[in-house]
Design a protein that fits this description.
Layout: H1 2-8, E1 63-67, H2 72-83, E2 87-92, H3 96-108, E3 113-117, H4 123-137, E4 142-145, H5 161-186, E5 193-197, H6 201-204, H7 210-229, E6 236-240, H8 256-260, H9 274-285, E7 296-297
Helix pairs in contact: 1-3, 2-3, 2-9, 4-5, 5-7
Amino acid sequence: MVRDLQKQGIMANKSSQKGVSSDTDQRPPQHQERQPGREGEMRPAPVHEQPGARGSGRLAGLVAIITGGDSGIGRATAFAFAREGADVMIVYLEEEADARETARRVAELGQRAELFRGDVGEEAVCRKAVEATIDRFDRIDILVNNAAEQHPRESLLDITEAQLVATFRTNLFAMFFMAKAALPHLKRSPQASIINTTSVTAYRGSPGLLDYSATKGAVVAFTRSLSQNLAEDKIRVNAVAPGPIWTPLIPATFPAGEVAKFGADTPLGRAGEPWECAESFVFLASADSSYMTGQTLHPNGGEIING
C-alpha cells in the first residue's frame, strides 16, 4: 500500500503543513452538503502537523488503529504517530481521496500505512478492520476510537429515531465494537493503550447537539469504566475532549455563517487546529503517560471544565 501510494505521487496540501493555526478572521463562510466532510474543500486548510516538530521515537515499533483517520483530528494523529515511529491502520467511512492522502503523508514520514474502508458502527466491520491490521502488521498496540458524526437540531422533537440510532452507533457503539475486537491483541502488547475521542460538549452540554452530547458523555463514562476493567491487564484507557477544532465535520454540519465564526467565542478567540489535539493523543499513547488511565485531556481553547 505504501509503495503504491508513493508511486502515484499524490500531492500534499501544502497549506496544511504551514503555520500554527488558521486565523478565524480569515475563514470565509462555507458549507458542505455531506458528512463527515472533505478536507480538500475547506478554506483555509486545516493544519495537521505541528510546525517544526521532530520525532523522538516515543512510539517506535508500535502499531496503531485510528478510526476516522482519513481527515481532521484522525489525520493529524496519524501524522503525529508516524513522526514518533508508529505504523498506522487508517479506518475511514468513504472519503477515499482524503484517506489516500493521509496514508501518503504517513509513508513520507517513514512509516507504513494501510487503509481500511468501512462503517465502524457495524461490529462485523470492526472485526474485519482488526483482522486486516493483524494481517498487515502482525500486532496492535494502540487503538484510537475517533470516528464520529453530529446532526444539529433545534428541538428534541426534531430528533428522529433513525438519527438517534445512527449517532449512537457511530459515536459510542463503535468504540465498544473496536475495543472488543482489538482486546485479545492489545493484551499481548507491553505498551497497550486505548484512546477515545470525547468532546467539550460532554462537560458543558450543547442545546443544538442533544444526541451528540449524550454520546460524548457516555464516552467519558465508558473510558473511566473500561480503564478500571482493563487495569489488571496493564491496558491504559484514556480520552481526549476537544473544544472547537477546524475539521471537515464543521462545514459539513453547520450553516456557512456559523462556520465563519467557529471558535471565536473561546477564551483564546479562535478554533483549534487538528495538530493541537494530536499532541494529546501522542502523550496518552506514549510511555510519558504511563501512570495515567481513566483520564481525559482537554485541548479546548481555554474553556474551564469541571468533572
